[in-house]
Every structure is written in C-alpha cells, then in structure tokens.
C-alpha cells in the first residue's frame, strides 16, 4: 500500500515536471460527423408511422420512475484507486527465431523490479518474464492524453536462445551491454498488445478541465475486469517515471468506425442480420458494464474495436460509477454492490462525441440516468449500421437530421429509400426517444423482438495478416 501511495505521488510530481510532447489528432474522425450530402434534403411532415409493436407511451409506468423516486440526484461514486507497478523502458537483447540471430531491441517497456528487491536495474531485469517492444513501422495513434503504440510481446528465454550447439552469433561487442545483461535474453512472440501511453505533463494540464481522466479510466478497467469477451480489459499498468503506460490486448482488425466507412463507400449499410450480429455483442458488453455499476458515457463506433469476428468496447476515459441508495443511510449513496435502488446522476458536464451524444447530456441541465444515456448512444450506432449513414452533427432540434431521427424516422427512411423491418424501426425509434423516461431500458433492448431473428456473421471477415516482426527497425 505504501509503495502504491509513493508511486501515486511520483505520477503527480511527474505531471508537473515532464516536458509535454507535441499534440496531435486522428484524421478522418472528427467530433462532429456530417450527414452525406446526397442525403441532406429532408421531407416535411411529422413522419409518423403505425407500428404493430406496442407503443412505449401506452405504459402507465416506466422503470425510470423508480429511479427518480429513489431519492435526489447524486454525484457519481468514486472509483477505487488505480493500481500500477513501476516500469522502465530500455534496450534488451532479443533472439529472433526465424533469422536465428540476436539483436538489440530499443525502447522496450517492462516491469522494473529493482526497488522491490533492492537490486540494480541490470540485475532486476532477470526477473522480467514479459516485455513489450514497440513496432517501429506502426504509426502511433494520437490520443487526447498521449498516444497508443502497437507492441510485440517479448518473453524471457528459459536459457540463452541460440543454436542447438550452444553457440550464439551475438557477441558482446554488438552493443554496450555488460556480460551480466547479455545473460538476459528475450524472444519474439507472435502476440501483440496495444499500449496506451499517457503523458504525465498532459495529464496535469487537463486535470479537472477535461472529461477524460486516465487515472479514472485505469480504475474503471481494473474494476470491470478482464473476463468479458466484449469489453477490453487491461493486462498491466506501468509507470516509467515519465508516462503512465496501460497495456491492453490488441484488436488487429480495426474498429467499427472503419467498417461503417467501408459500408458507406459501398453505398449501403449492414444487412439487418449482420448488424444484429455486431449489435448483440455490443449490447452484451454494455450489459456487463452496467452490471458492474458503470456508465460508459462515450460509446461510439470509434470505441468499438474489432478482432476478427469479435467486438470489444474500449476507452473508459469518461466512464462513471452509478450511485445507489445506501440501505443503512437513506441520505447516502453507495456503489451497486452495496446499494438497493439506482439513483439519478447530477449533471456532470457535456461530454462524449456530438454525433452520438444524448440530448440530456448535451443540454447538461437536468439529472440523468446512466443506463439511459448509454442506450441512446447505442441507438445512434445501430442507426449508422442499418442505414449506411453517419449520425447527426449535434443532438439539437436545429440539426435537421437529429430532428428527423427523433421526430420522423419512418419518413426519413422513406426519403432515403431505405427499407428496414418493422421491428428494427420500432427498436430505433424507442432507443432514440428524446424523453429518457420513454426510452427503452437496456433489458428492454436486449429482449426486443428484433433480437429474436437470426444473426449473420460478416460476409468479409476483417482479419489482416499478422504484423511483421520488427527485426530491422524499418517501416
């Protein structure tokens, strides 16, 4: 515990002492997505259409009524303190099996055991079982707080990895390592990870001024765990004295945003069975978050990674914990594991991406339900899937597409010449209810008749060949 507190102080100190790298952004992924020009013309009229499915308005009471009645809106519950270990970046000796040679890998990230065992960094290297080698030809992906780099996983050799006769074509003169360091040899594996590097100086600059909080994201990921197939977990977190490195599994097939762009270029959306295949996974992941008492707040196609035929929800930087009434103290709130009735959340600021943001988060004037805002964003994702079009620019009636998505969806689809099943239209309409009370709950979405039909795995699985091993240092 004392070690964790000491490292937390170091992180805070480093935030003020670090030189901030140059900022950057991800091209092609603006916060405000625009509707396709060919679809900007919209019809007039109320766009109402009869549905064989039961109307939400017909129900005299709704689940949100109980949430409102549970007590006054409360701030989110704090996450447990994040846990991280000391890390280090350094050169290490690597054996490359397919070339049967040794080489020096640079800027390798690994856990540093030197303080824990009172050893020199060189000697402590012998305790490292796994390390992460940034792939030099893979461009960094810029983030708000730093960047993401794709790394090859290195594992310790049981003994010096060399030819069967015990000789090695690496000599001590190849680098400046000592003989003691040469005894520690790693080997290249076929596994890859994504390392989210948070710059300490940038974390300090944005602390309290930006909805994304790296420390809170780490705490959220550690709370959520690694066990769910559709939510990205964390392998380990390493503070190297300058940056906070979050090591996560690597999803090598891109993200849902790219899949949607590809479908838009073809001029079509996903078929309903294909959309249902992906959307079922997304909703399963969201259910896991909600069962842990966590509201994501920033669900979007960019935050759904694809790994072959599997999807993973990522980016918990804006996630919050939902408050519940404390059964022992009616005026207090606790987390989902100790509480009874879910409570509304006091306004926390406008956050997330505008094209997927719920109207109540955009307005930021009234308390909101954590589950309802995630259902809304999922509704916009489903809209993009089945129409082959982007969402609105902002969730306000002055935005034409937002108005028709929420007040005249059937008419909008007719104008775009898009045919969807009545179940799909009903699901979209009721996930995109402006009034959170009338919006479907997560359980109502999962048990909606649209999900009773069959799924269809993607016709063209996104599975690029595995990345080349970075043995030459060239792109």
Describe the structure.
This protein has 475 residues and is an alpha+beta fold. The protein has two domains: 39-69 and 253-452, Transferase(Phosphotransferase) domain 1 (Transferase(Phosphotransferase), domain 1, Orthogonal Bundle), CATH 1.10.510.10; 85-249, 2-Layer Sandwich (Phosphorylase Kinase, domain 1). The protein contains 15 helices and 14 strands. The strands form four sheets. Strands 1, 2, 3, 4, 5, 6, 7 and 8 form an eight-stranded mixed beta sheet that branches. The protein has a two-stranded antiparallel sheet with strand order 9-12. Strand 13 (324-325) and strand 14 form a beta hairpin. The longest helix has 20 residues, at 272-291. It is globular and about 70 Å long. Mean pLDDT is 84; it is low at 15-28, 30-52, 165-181 and 461-475.
Please give the number of β-strands. 14
The CATH superfamily title of the largest domain: Transferase(Phosphotransferase) domain 1
Q: Helical amount among residues, as a percent range?
A: 25-40%
Summarize the main sheet.
Answer: 8 strands, mixed
CATH class of the largest domain: Mainly Alpha
Average pLDDT works out at: 84
Strand content: 15-25%
Low-confidence stretches: 15-28, 30-52, 165-181, 461-475
**Distance, first to last CA:** 43 Å
In the CATH classification, which architecture of the largest domain applies?
Orthogonal Bundle
CATH fold group of the largest domain: Transferase(Phosphotransferase), domain 1
* Estimated radius of gyration: 25 Å
Topology as a string of helices (H) and strands (E):
HHEEHHEEEHEHHEEHHEEEEEEHHHHHH
Which class of secondary structure composition applies to the elements?
Answer: alpha+beta
Work out the oligomeric state of the chains in this entry. single chain
Number of domains: 2
What is the approximate shape?
globular
- Annotation field: number of helices: 15
Organism: Nitzschia inconspicua
InterPro entries: Prot_kinase_dom, Tyr_kinase_AS
Region (Disordered): 1-56, 162-183, 456-475
Protein name: Serine/threonine protein kinase
